[in-house]
Amino acid sequence: MSLLDSVRTRLGASHAIPPGTMLLWLARVGVLQSLYHSVRARGIVLVGRGSRLRVARSATLDLAPGAMLLVGLAHDVPGGASVRLRPRARLAVEGRVQVMRRCDVYLGWGARLEIGDGTFLNDGASVVSHGHVAIGRECAISWGVRIMDTDVHTLVRADPLVGPDTDVVLGDRCWIGADSSVLKGVRLGDGCVVAARSVVTRSAPAASLLAGTPARVKDDHVDWIR
Asked: Which tops the pLDDT comparison, 13 or 184?
């Protein structure tokens, strides 16, 4: 069985990919990285040339049965993607997930990132987790988006330490507009839409349209077509 046939079989009919698209991806694959991580994760991991997937020895790349992780394959833009898992970190993938070129995904010590089927991180998006980030199914994370569950540095004032790291949770079918930021502690319900260049600091219920800096709910019954 060829690599193309193996990939299509593992995905199954519900994740059908046109043969031409698959051949284009395979032509861009860094073979050694892809084989190493596919064997280690016991799934399908395709890493594009010029991209990096670094998984510490005690970290876990956890692919659900039939899942596929694509790193730095789509789009002809300069610069590869970077996905880094520090010791004891865990990246869990369901279905087909794409991390496109110039993306930066960083999981600190013991951090957890979960990404659902059909979700993609578009060019230049980044995720920084020191705790826990969960991104649902069929989410569109646009160009230059930043998702962070941490301030990275600690702000010290006269009173106790400010701002501990807090989980970020995005429901299914969320669309995060270009150059937006989703900061620690935010929980967005299913189907939320965030306007471009917004800074989301507060949670919102399902089907909310958020915009502004800081973002506020502008509509509570929005829908979108992927």
From this structure: 184
Check: CB of residue 71 under 8 Å from CB of residue 34: no
Counting every residue, how long is the chain?
226
Phi, psi at 41, each rounded to 5°: -85, -10
pTM above 0.90, yes or no: no
Taking only the tens place, the pLDDT of each residue in 84-126 is 999 999 999 999 999 999 999 999 999 999 999 999 999 999 9
Q: Is 114 helix (H, G, I), strand (E, B) or coil?
A: strand
Question: Which tens digits make up the pLDDT trace of 41-92?
Answer: 999 999 999 999 999 999 999 999 999 999 998 767 778 999 999 999 999 9
What span, in angstroms and rounded, lies between the C-alpha atoms of 34 and 63? 14
Distance CA 185, CA 107 (A): 17
Strand-pair category, 216-219 with 209-211: antiparallel
Neighbours of 205 (CB within 10 A): 14
Give dist(CA 70, CA 28) in Å, integer: 11
- Residue ranges of the alpha helices (H) in 90-181? none
Query: Which residues on neighbouring strands pair with residue 63, listed in sequence order?
Result: 93
The whole-angstrom separation of Cα 168 and Cα 137 is 15
Nearest to 16 by CA among 4, 3, 28: 4
